[in-house]
Write a structure and sequence with these properties.
Helices cover 41% and strands 14% of the residues. It is built from 41 helices and 40 strands.
Amino acid sequence: MKSAFLDRLHSPDRPVLVFDGAMGTNLQVQNLTAADFGGAEYEGCNEYLVHTKPEAVATVHRAFYEAGADVVETDTFGGTPLVLAEYDLADQSYYLNKAAAELAKSVAAEFSTPDKPRFVAGSMGPGTKLPTLGHVDYDSLKDAYVVQVRGLYDGGVDLLLVETCQDVLQIKAALNAIEQVFAEKGDRLPLMVSVTMETMGTMLVGTEMAAALAILEPYPIDILGLNCATGPDLMKEHVKYLSEHSPFVVSCIPNAGLPENVGGQAFYRLTPVELQMSLMHFIEDLGVQVIGGCCGTRPDHIKALADIAKDLHPKERQPRYEPSAASIYSTQSYAQENSFLIIGERLNASGSKKCRDLLNAEDWDSLVSLAKSQVKEGAQILDVNVDYVGRDGVRDMKELASRLVNNVTLPLMLDSTEWQKMEAGLKVAGGKCILNSTNYEDGEERFYKVLEIAKEYGAGIVIGTIDEDGMGRTADKKFEIAKRAYEAAIAFGIPATEIFFDPLALPISTGIEEDRENGKATVDAIRRIRQELPDCHILLGVSNVSFGLNPAARQVLNSIFLHECMQVGMDAAIVSANKILPLAKIDPEQQQVCLDLIYDRREFEGDRCTYDPLTKLTTLFEGKTTKRDKSGDANLPVEERLKRHIIDGERLGLEEALNEALKLYAPLDIINIYLLDGMKVVGELFGSGQMQLPFVLQSAQTMKAAVAFLEPHMDKDDSADNAKGTFLIATVKGDVHDIGKNLVDIILSNNGYRVVNLGIKQPVENIIEAYKEHKPDCIAMSGLLVKSTAFMKENLEVFNQEGITVPVILGGAALTPKFVHQDCQNTYKGQVIYGKDAFADLHFMDKLMPAKSSHNWDDSQGFLGEYATENGNSVTTDDGAKTNFGIEEEKLIDASEQSREPEVIDTVRSEAVDPDLERPVPPFWGTKILQSSDISLDEVFPLLDLQALFVGQWQFRKPREQSREEYDQFLAEKVHPILAEWKGKVMAENLLHPTVVYGYFPCQSQGNTLLIYDPELVSQNNGQIPPDATAIAKFEFPRQKSGRRLCIADFFASKESGITDVFPLQAVTVGEIATEYARKLFAGDNYTDYLYFHGMAVQMAEALAEWTHQRIRQELGFGHLEPDNIRDLFQQRYQGSRYSFGYPACPNMQDQYTQLELLQTERIGLYMDESEQVYPEQSTTAIISYHPTAKYFSA
C-alpha cells in the first residue's frame, strides 16, 4: 500500500494532524430549506446534499481547510443503504458515497501544497441499528458497509474512518466489509477507528476502553481513538489508557463540551481556546497525534487546534499491550500471576448431560443461569459447546451466545468441531473470543479455515495436538504437531500470544497399558512447548485425566495433575474451579500416590506388579466423598497443630498444644521454629491475596497469646534478648494517623522483632533520641498526609547531620515508590525503602538481619555478596506499583521546582454556573449544636459507606481470582455479621458520642472570593445584607484554568447583585471516646477489635457528615430532590455538594481555622491541634453549596 497520508503521519518530524469539525453543526448555520434537500421527504438527510446542493457541503469543507485542517471527512456519516433506506434512498448509497468523496477531494485539491498536503477521510458512521442489541444481524450490516466502502474507495478517499462507534460488533462488521473491498480492489487504504465513550464511562453497549482495545488490537488499524459524546475532560481517562497501552496512533476528536438544551437546540459551550488547551495537554503529555472536533465545533475551533499543531510534537509513547480475551464489557488477561486462566467447562453439551438436556428443551434461561453459576465459582472465560447430534448447531450457537453476551460479563470460548458453529457465535458475540479448536485431523484445509475465521473476527485460537494420523499420544508426537501448527499459524498472521495449544489430557485411570504413559506424556509435552515455542499459551481439559474414578479420587487426582502441569508451563485449563483443591488440603500420602500414577511409577518383581498406584488410589478413596473430614486434625503432630493454630487464628486448644510442646522443646524453640513458621505462612497467604487483613490480625493475637503463655517458662536472659532485631517506628510530626503504623507494629512484633512504637505526631528530635537509646536496626516513618512526605524528607537530612545511616522505611498513602526511591534516596546517605505495607516491611527485615549477621550489609551500599545477587543489590520491596490512593505525584514535587513566573489570576465568573436562580432562606441565621441525645445512631448507621468500611478500613479486599458473586457471599456470611456485632456493641456500651455544630451564614461572592457576614447583622436587617456591611471573614477559592472554569465562589450570589445568599457550614465528631477506646484496644493486644472499631469510628464520622448535610438540604427546601437509595447518595445525586478544605476545589488548609472560628467548635470539644489537624481524630468538617451545578471538581 502506497499512501501519502501514512507518509505524512509517520514522517520523521511526527506532525500532529488536524481533522475537521462538525459537518452537521456547520450545515445548520447555512439555514438550508427543504428545497435544498430535494424536498420535504429528504429534509435532514445531510448525505443527500452532495446530490441536491453540493455547494453547501463544499462550503463546510472549504471553511475547515481554510482554518488549517489537514483532513476533512466526507459527508457520508449515514451513508449505508440501511440508514438511507429511512429516506427511501438505499439504492443511491454507492453513488452518494462516491460523489461525496469526489466532492471533498476536489476541495482538497484547492488547498493542498507539498508543504501542507490535504487529505480526505471516508466517514463511516455507526448507523441507527446496533447488532449486539439485536437491531440488525451481522451479515446484513456488513453487506451494507460493503456498498458504502466501494463508493468511498472509488471516489478516491485517502483513508477510511469508522467513527462514533457505539457497538464493538458493529466495528467488526465495518472492518470486515472494508477488508472484503480491499480484497476485491487488490489494494488497501489506511484505517482509522474512533469509538464513542458515553458520560458513564463506557460505549453505549457497556464496553470499557480496555475491552475495546483488546477487541480491536488484532485488526490492521493505523489510528485508534475517541470522538463525540463528551468534551475532552471526560475523555482524558480513556485517552490516557490508549496512550499507555495502544499499539496504534492515538486520536482524540471531542465535542465542544457536553450539549445543553437551549431553546430546543443542542448548544455546546466549550470555547476554541478551552478545546485548544485540553488537546495541547493530550499531545504533549499523552502522545496524541491526531486531533479535531466533533459536535458543536466550528472553523474557529479547528483554527485554534491548527495553530498549536504547527509547533507541537506528540510525546513519545512506549505502549504496553497485555494480550487478553474480552467480553463486550471488560477484559480478561491471558496471563495470571501465580495461577492459571480458569475456563468454565459446564456449558458443554458434549460433556455435560445437564447442558444437553437444557439444550434439547431449548431452556435458554436455565443455560444462562448455568453460565452465571460458573462465574460465581471463579471461571474467567466460559467454554460454550452446543455440539449435539440431531440439532441445528448453528442456530443453537446463535441463540445461546447472543443471550450470554448480554447476561454474562465473561469472554466466551466458542467450542465446536465444526467451524460453521464457531462462526455463528462470532457473529453475535462482539467481544474478543477464543475458538476451540482447530487441528490437522481433517487435513490442512479445515486447519486453515479456522485460522481464517479467527483472523477475520480477531479471536484467539486453540490448537489440539491431533494430525492426520490421529491424536498425539507421546510427548514427541504432541510436540511435533504443536511445532508444525505454531509455524503455520504465525506465517498465516496469527500472533503467538493468541495461540493456545491443547496437548490433550488423556485418561490414566483406565488400567489399560497404553494409557499408563498418558499423564507423563502430557507433562513432558507441555514442558517442551513452553521451552521451544515462545509466547504461546498451553491449555488443558484437566478432568479427562481421571475419567472413571469416583468423584473424591477425581478431585484429588485432577488437582495434583493440574499442579504438575502448571509447574512445567500450562497457563490455562478448562475446569470447574470449585472442584480443584489446593495442595495444602490434600493428604501427603494421597499426593504421592497421584504423582506415582501420573508418572507411572509402578513397582515390579519380575513380571508381577507389587505396587500399582491406580489400585492404591482406588483403595484410598473407597467409600469417600468430596466433603473434607476434619476429624483427623486432632491427630496431627503437635508441631503441625501449633502451626495451624497460628494460621487459623484459633486460640481454642492452644494452651493444651503448648503444654504438650513444652515436654519436647524449649520455649524459644517453640516460638522461633513452629509459631513463627505459622506466621510466615500467614504472611505468604496475605501477600497472595488468600487471607484478608482481619484474619491476619487474628493470627497475630493468637501468636501474642502463645508467647505470653510461654514467657513464664523462659529464662530471664531468653525473654529479654529473644528478638530477631529492633525496629523503631513513628508517625511524623503533624500527622495523627496511626492505623498503618500500628499494623506494622503488630505484624513485626508477632514475627519475632522488638518494635519501639513512638506513636503519632513525633518530631525528629524524639526519633533521634529513641534511636540513641534503642539502637534499632531500622527506622520506619509513617504518614498519611501529603505534607508528611515533606517532613520525612527533612528528617532524612537531619539524620545525615546526626550521623545516622541505618536503613529507613517510609510508608503511608501519600507516598509513591518514585518519590521514595528518587527524591528521598537522593537526600539520605543510608538506604531508603518504600514500605508498601506491613508485610513488605517484614520481608525487608527478614532479609536485612541475616545479611547483617553475615557481614553482607553496608548502610551506604545496601546488600553485599550473595545477598546482593539474591536481592539485586536493591532494597526495593515492591514491584513499583503505586499505592498513593489517587494523590497525584505532582503534589509531591519540591516547591523549588515550581515556576516562578507571576500567575495571572482569572476572576471572571464561569458561564457554566447559572446566577439567576432562587436563593433559599435558611430556618435560622448563625449556628446550632446537636448533642448525642439529639442524634439517633439508627439514622446514621444506614449512611455508612460499606465499600469504604469493608475494603478501605477493614481491608476485606476481593482476591483477584474470586468472582464478584463469591465475594458478595463472603461479605454477607462473614463481614456483615461483624458489622452487626459492632453496631450492637457501640449502642450498648455508648462507645461513640456523635455531636454536630452547623449553621447558616449570610454571604456574597466577589470574583473568586466569598465574603461572609455577621448573621446577627442580617437578622436585624430583615434578612438582607446592608450595602455598607463589612465582611467578618473571607474565603478565596482557586478557579479551573480550562474547561468549565469552575470556582466555588461562582455558586453564590455576587455582591453586585445585592442578593443575600446563604453559606452553610458543618463540623461533626464521634467524640474523643473513639480515640481513647481505640488506644485501649491496641494497648490490650486486641488487634482485630482495634481494626474493626477504629475503622468503624472513622466511617461513622463520615456517615454523620452525610447525615448533617442531608439535614441542611432538607432545611433549605431541597429534601424533595433526595435520592431514594444509598448508592445514588454517595454518587452525589442530590442538589449541591459539600467540600472539605484541603481538597482540590478548596485546597487552603488554613481556611479551616476560620471555619472552626465561625462555628465556634470548641463548644463541642473540636479544635485544630498543634499539628494543624482536627481533633478528635474521628471528626470532619465541610462547607456546603446548594447550587445545582456544584459537584466535586479539581481546580
